[in-house]
Amino acid sequence: FSEYFNRCPMVEIQGITYPVREYYLEDVLAELKFYSFEDKTSRNPRDRKRNRTQTAQQDEFYDMIEAYTSEIRNKYSASVIRALSNRGSENHQNELIVELLYYITCAQPAGAILVFLPSVMQISDIYRMIHEHPKLSTARLVVYPLHSKIPTGEQTAVFDRPPAETRKIILSTNIAETSITIDDIVYVINAGRHKLNTYENGISALRDEWISLSNEIQRKGRAGRVQEGTCYHLYSRARRRTFLENVPPEILRVALDEVILQVKILRLGEVRVFMDRLLDKPSDTVIEESLKLLNRLNAIDDDQKLTPLGYHLARLPMDPRTGKMILLASIFGCIDPITSIAASLSFKNAFYKPLGKEKEVDRIRRRFADGIASDHIMLARVLDEWRRQSNRAGFCHRHFLNNATLQQLSNMKRQFCEYLHGAHFLSAVECEAPENNHHTGSNELLAAIVGAGLYPNVAFVRKVIRSRNSPDGRAILNIEGQGRAEIHPASVNSNRGIFHSNFVVYYDMQKLSALTIFDTTVVNPFSLLFFGDNHVETEDDHELISIAGHYCLKCDKATYRLIQDLRNGFNLFLQKKICEPSPVDWDATEGDLLRAIIKLITVECKYDDHFGDEETTLGTEESH
After folding, report:
1. Nearest one of 248, 327, 325 to 286, comparing CA atoms
2. Where on the phi/psi map is residue 81: left (φ > 0), alpha (ψ -120 to 50), or beta?
3. CA dihedral defined by 129, 133, 137, 139, rounded to 10 degrees?
4. Helix (H) or strand (E) holding 551
5. In the 8-state DSSP scheme, what is residue 2?
6. Per-residue model confidence (pLDDT) at position 50
7. pLDDT recorded at residue 529
8. What b/e readout covers 511-535, taking b as 16+ CB neighbours within 10 angstroms?
9. φ and ψ of 232, to 5 deg
């Protein structure tokens, strides 16, 4: 930083911390005499060739640990060396963590315990194992999970001091690393991993990664804020030697769509030249991918100049795809539900999942959806029902909703509508005003607007795997340029047995155990045909139209020309509205144009279902 700012001087202010005793994995194993780890990996060369990534990780581990154990062979017992040499000592630590909690609870002086874990799933597993442990389950304990999806009111419980002779245990993600100080923490258990957002090859991936040395210092310091403490690092000193000094900065780990729009609206020059001047420059590949997406959204032109649409998208405090969604909603008269969707995507989901209640929450989400194949429309329904309640707190408690989050979403909706009204896209400033919501009741139109906004985030349903005696199914999808994908279990479409369309749009895609899409909506292909960029080939006297890399529409040339004329008419209309905003006059010619478009993009699709014993294969759409 000093070099970047022309070698400016630095001032260092020392924090006040108390001494913290540190132990590493080999010390913990020796103290607990814990030597047994499950190891699901194989050292058989033939087995390891099957997975190159896993093989590389195994080779790295064995090379590291074999060199280290030769250093410490005289300091630790053979049992510790053998346990340390088992790759499961890094990958399967739940039992060790619970045994360490039992050891601290029974053998160490009073004080709260803070356990850093990488994921909500591992927090849930450890929480369950504590309550199933034959001795810990009978001890005087209070156990708190702590992560960002827990309502703020419940998060504050971790600050309460327990009664005398009661041990407090907090199972936390890295939310407790720097955001808060819990003043009775004496013991820290550091699993040494965290979830880190990365962006590679057009995919946002939430990876389980080793922490950096700066993370270790922060975590250790949690035990020494107000008194002397102890920190147990559940990785070896050899593993610590591989840690980076700091986590790579976010500018190197995210898509750059919003950043580029800000560069353009602030007139900071050509994007690549500007990026070259940053403290840490993103890769050329990521810059090009974001420029390509903004061009497909018509936010920038081929010369990378901001279009009128791009100007408004840059002014809106949200992802450009979500911004396009609410601009279209203002034109098509469905602003109330679409701003609810935009707020949820821009901020966070209002649902929370208490440990052990995950399936019940999923059932409630599906009940709100009421058969509509859309997480996005479901979220709009939730906000609408909450707004109508006289007892909002009770409504939230019954449905596992965060009242504060819903209030924030309502405030964001108001801000969006104030901007659109101030820019003359809306005739009334209230989101719920009838004049802003001529077509709010059409779920087909809402899905089409969501699809138009989220395009080109489109997945194609290849088949639905379904058991013999159940209506539920599991969709196998394909994403152009990425390959096979699945729908996240939390989506209302994750167990859908029948799809009325092959096309599913999504807001977020991550590489978990498989490529996974979140927050999905099943959309009519006609809406993607109309709002997207599609490939067309002529076959005899018909046109074959592909959407997201899949041929799915066949029509005669006259019909295709009619659709193209309608598209051209809408593009001219949209350009005029963006340059000279005004509320839509539904009694004029523009109203006739929009009604014709609505009729096209909401036309009913009919698919032929071919039922097998174990799966359903979806047929293709033909339209004349």
Report:
1. 248
2. alpha
3. -120
4. strand 550-556
5. T
6. 47
7. 85
8. beeebbbbbbbbbbbbbbbbbbeee
9. -105, 110
Map residue 348 onto helix, strand or coil. coil
Per-residue model confidence (pLDDT) at position 44: 52
Model confidence band, residue 69 (pLDDT cutoffs 50, 70, 90): very high
Q: Report residue 200: phi and psi, to 5°.
A: -140, 135
Q: Cα–Cα distance between 34 and 43 in angstroms, integer?
A: 22
Q: Model confidence over 457-468: pLDDT tens digits?
A: 899 998 888 877
Q: Over 90: is that where the pLDDT of 563 sits?
A: no
pLDDT average, residue stretch 218-226: 89
For residue 601, give both structure tokens: 């993009």
Distance of CA 389 to the CA centre of its chain: 29
pLDDT tens-digit map of 252-269: 988 899 999 999 999 998
| pLDDT value for 624 | 31
Q: Please report which confidence band the pLDDT of residue 610 belongs to, taking 50, 70 and 90 as the band edges.
A: very low
Q: What is the pLDDT of residue 178?
A: 82
Q: Write out the H or E segment, with its range, that includes residue 165.
A: none
CA distance 305 to 299: 8
What's the pLDDT tens digit per position in 309-325? 888 888 887 888 899 99
Quote the CA–CA distance of 608 and 622 in Å, as a whole number.
10
- 270 CB contacts (<8 Å, ≥6 apart)? 304
Q: Are 169 and 184 in contact (CB under 8 A)?
A: no
Q: Please tell me the predicted confidence (pLDDT) of residue 150.
A: 81
Amino acid letter, 11: V
Of the candidates 262, 256, 259, the one whose C-alpha atom is nearest the C-alpha of residue 315 is 262
Going by their DSSP bridges, the two strands 458-466 and 473-479 should be labelled as antiparallel
C-beta separation of 114 from 176 below 8 A: yes
Question: Is residue 292 within 8 Å of 388, Cβ to Cβ?
Answer: no
User: How far is residue 611's CA from residue 618's CA, in Å, rounded to a whole number?
Assistant: 9
Q: Cα–Cα distance between 62 and 86 in angstroms, integer?
A: 9
Query: What confidence tens digit (pLDDT) does each residue in 495-505 have?
Result: 898 888 889 99
Percent of residues in the chain assigned helix, strand, coil, to nearest 5:
45, 20, 35
DSSP tally for the chain: helices H, then strands E: 25, 18
Look-up of token digits 């040339």: 557
Instruction: Name residue 200's beta-bridge partners.
Output: 203
Give the span between the Cα atoms of 333 and 441, in whole angstroms: 10
How do beta strands 609-611 and 229-233 pair?
A: unpaired
Please name the residues in contact with 402: beta carbons below 8 A apart, sequence gap of 6 or more: 151, 152, 350, 351, 352, 396
List, edge to edge, every strand of the sheet that includes 550-556.
Answer: 535-539, 542-547, 550-556
Q: Which of 472, 493, 473 is nearest to 369 (CA)?
A: 493
**Is residue 42 pLDDT above 60, yes or no?**
no
Residue 531 to residues 376, 379, 502, 574, Cα–Cα distance (Å): 19, 23, 17, 12
